[in-house]
Amino acid sequence: MTRSIAVGFDGSPDATRALRVALALARDTGATTWVLHARGLLGERGAPAVPPVVSETVTELGLDPARVHWRVEDGDPCSVLLRCVGPPVDAEILVVGRRGRGRHEGLLLGSTSLELVEHARVPVVVVPSPSNG
Amino acid sequence: MTALVLNADYGAQAHEEAGHPERPARATAALQGVTDLHLGDDLVVVGPRAAQRAELARVHAAGYLDELGAFCYAGGGDLDPDTYATTDSWTIAVNAAGAGLAVVDALAERGDGVGFVVTRPPGHHALADRAMGFCLLNNVAVAAAHLVDRGERVVIVDWDVHHGNGTQSIFWDEPRVLYVSTHQWPLYPGSGRPVEVGGPHALGRTLNLPLPPGATGDVVRRALEAAAPTVEAFEPTWVLVSAGFDAHRADPLADLALSSGDFAALASLAGGFAPGPGRIALFLEGGYDLAALRASVAASLSTLLGEASAAEAPTSGGPGSEAVPAALAQFHQTVEVLATSEEEAT
Ligand SMILES: [Zn+2]
Questions:
Q1: Mean of the per-residue pLDDT values for chain B?
Q2: What is the DSSP letter of B307?
Q3: pLDDT digits over B89-147, tens only?
Q4: Which residues of chain A are within 8 Å of residue B188 when distances are taken between CB atoms?
Q5: Which residue of A73, B108, B226, B286 sits 20 to 30 Å from the alpha carbon of A2, by its own alpha carbon?
């Protein structure tokens, strides 16, 4: 049984698609979902609020909002997702969009999804961009 | 005393992105800080050189070096939400890493002086196989590995406001390098807790002293003072400083509250770790307020040179006075527990 699913969320269209996949997976498995936002060096300090699209998707899919956590962590997206395999998130599945904000496609360098697939010790779900076909 | 300064000659090449705080004007401001000291003949500008591939490969994965070079030559772009590269960035980064090597070699040859390397892009977040946090190549790590290769024992003092996760990771299990970091916590990159003490062959060779937002210079000074016994027990033959100046109260990227005078005090403490003349070099890391950067460079360098400095008064009274002893206790306890479990395992 899957108890904990983590999804990387940076506000990009691919991340929004990944969010939907993760929440649907959580609904089907009864897992808790952690929506993780990596706060980079240039990120806004303080505590960024839950983006409306997160609560909207939770409502739309009929999930219990108490089982969906919004979490902001300092770091680059790849390190933040790799770290959440440990406590308190203890993610058993990582979900990410194919491309983050303004990122390049097809290169290992600069691709969170490819880096994760390379380094993660739990299954990684990569949600493709519509242009992937 | 002589200052050996190097700013790699980048010519017309550009490592910059519109609106990004890690910008060429930072190097200019840091060099103005040096110029402000009017060192005359005591200023030696070391000739630039590019780091050789083998020198980079001591700390970086060969595949990463290939990819980064190719990425830049293909036009560059964003490597993560914080980090950019341009067509010229590979050449510039290789020259920045080489600048550190040139300064360290020049110091070793003279047996005297204080090194200051105006490295852009900065380096301490760069991992063996990944660029992050504005950093492409880990300049201070490349220099430390170069010294270790010659049989030296290197303490890296990282007083940048951010934890140098790249440097820590590169030397995680290297007993000949001691990594000491003071940094704001919580803050990017999210690493640097006191329980991170080094790998099985290097237990206690990583010392992290995280400080709360708002901490003033007195607390950071106390942190380096508290690190002194660990540094002395290590018996370093070289001191390399990851000298970021983004812990200054004017810096837009973080929330510590240091003045330029505090950096003078930190430089003095780091200088005290050096076993003799010509054994300390400062590497520019962060620092994004240009006036604060200029003043802080002048203050730290002048202190190391034994010159008077017109720095801002040192600060005190901020939060975090309990943070240093707590972190140190956690460090010692973790080292002890891990050492015991290692012993039991063997
Ligand atoms: Zn910094």
A1: 95
A2: -
A3: 999 999 999 999 999 999 999 999 999 999 899 999 999 999 999 999 999 999 999 99
A4: 39-41, 43, 74-75
A5: A73
For residue A21, the CA-to-ligand 1 centroid distance in Å is 36
DSSP string, B35-73: HTT--GGGEEEPPP-PPPHHHHHTTS-HHHHHHHHHHHH
pLDDT tens figures, B150-202:
999 999 999 999 999 999 999 999 999 999 999 999 999 999 999 999 999 99
With beta carbons under 8 A apart, name residues in chain B contacting A11: none
Q: In the prediction, which pLDDT does A124 show?
A: 96
Tell me which residue of B130, B258, B294, B250 sits closest to B184, measured CA to CA: B258
Q: Does B84 contact chain A (CB < 8 Å)?
A: no
The mean pLDDT of B64-78, rounded to a whole number, is 94
Mean pLDDT value of segment B48-52: 92
DSSP designation for A90: -
Percent of chain A with pLDDT over 90: 71
Asked if B81 lies within 8 A of A109 by C-beta distance, the reply is no
Tell me how far apart the alpha carbons of residues B227 and B237 are, in angstroms, rounded to a whole number: 16
Whether cis (ω within 30° of 0) applies to the bond prior to B121 is yes
The token pair at A90 is: 């203890």
Parallel, antiparallel or unpaired: strands A32-39 and A4-8? parallel
Catalogue all structural domains in chain A, each as residue range(s) with its CATH number: 4-132 (3.40.50.620)
Residue of B23, B169, B188 to mutate for A, most A C-beta atoms under 10 A: B188
Q: How many CA atoms lie within 13 A of B320 on its CB side?
A: 27
Report which of residues B12 and B4 the model is more confident about: B4
Cβ contact, residue pair A41, B71, below 8 Å: no
Q: Does B62 touch chain A (CB under 8 A)?
A: no
Catalytic residues of B: 125
Q: Are B158 and B169 in contact (CB under 8 A)?
A: no
B67 has pLDDT over 60: yes
Q: Could you tell me the domains of chain B?
A: 3-345 (3.40.800.20)
Three-state SS letters, B211-223: ECCCCCHHHHHHH
* Structure confidence by residue, pLDDT tens digits, B234-247: 999 999 999 999 99
Q: H-helix or E-strand containing B114?
A: strand B114-117
pLDDT above 70 for A133: no
